[in-house]
């Protein structure tokens, strides 16, 4: 029997992918500066497939942390981003990031991982320190709202995005 990894184990990976309840591909990527990005991949034929997040209203108005900030096809040319698994090539991924105002990085996730270079680890450390120093200076104004969005937070947002994309698909098929 395959053991299901725990969130703590997954949160240490640079790339993780999984099946959502709606049958889409979910992906979470730990970026080199210490913040996560979340994605949902839809197959060809889905109404969001091929859509540009900057101009396609069906994608632009999806509700996810910080708004949708990515749309693109996973393929060999882009290094199989965001899942790193060629099995999902040809899927169109819709994504978001947790690197907005009031989002803090967590460089320790990068520093503790074996999946980053020493240079990436140094950059993450210095970036994280600079961010924390700037928040400390503005503590009274922004400290309560400024947080690190952890793996569990991103996972919930990926599931929410997946549900919204299923709703969009059902509307297009006349199910709703």
TL;DR?
The chain is α+β, with helices and mostly antiparallel strands. It is built from 6 helices and 7 strands. The chain is globular.
Any overview of this molecule?
A five-stranded antiparallel β-sheet has the order 1-2-3-5-4, covered by helices on one side. It has one domain. The chain is globular, with a radius of gyration of 17 Å. It contains six helices and seven strands. The N and C termini lie far apart (38 Å). It is α+β, with helices and mostly antiparallel strands and 176 residues long. It is 34% helix and 18% strand.
Question: Could you give the topology of this structure?
Answer:
Layout: H1 7-10, E1 15-19, E2 25-30, E3 36-42, H2 57-60, E4 70-73, E5 92-97, E6 103-104, H3 107-111, H4 118-137, H5 139-142, E7 147-148, H6 151-172
Parallel strand pairs: 6-7
Antiparallel strand pairs: 1-2, 2-3, 3-5, 4-5
Question: Keywords, please?
Answer:
176 residues, alpha+beta, 34% helix
According to DSSP, the number of beta strands is 7
Give the low-confidence spans.
none
Instruction: Give, in spatial order, the strands making up the sheet with the most strands.
Output: 1-2-3-5-4
Helix content: 25-40%
SSE run:
HEEEHEEEHHHEH
Q: For the CA atoms, what is the radius of gyration?
A: 17 Å
Task: Tell me the count of domains.
Answer: 1
Compute the average pLDDT. 85
Q: Please work out how many helical segments DSSP would assign.
A: 6
Q: In angstroms, what separates the terminal alpha carbons? A: 38 Å
Which structural class is indicated by helix and strand composition?
alpha+beta
Shape: globular
Percent of sequence in beta strands: 15-25%
Largest sheet: 5 strands, antiparallel
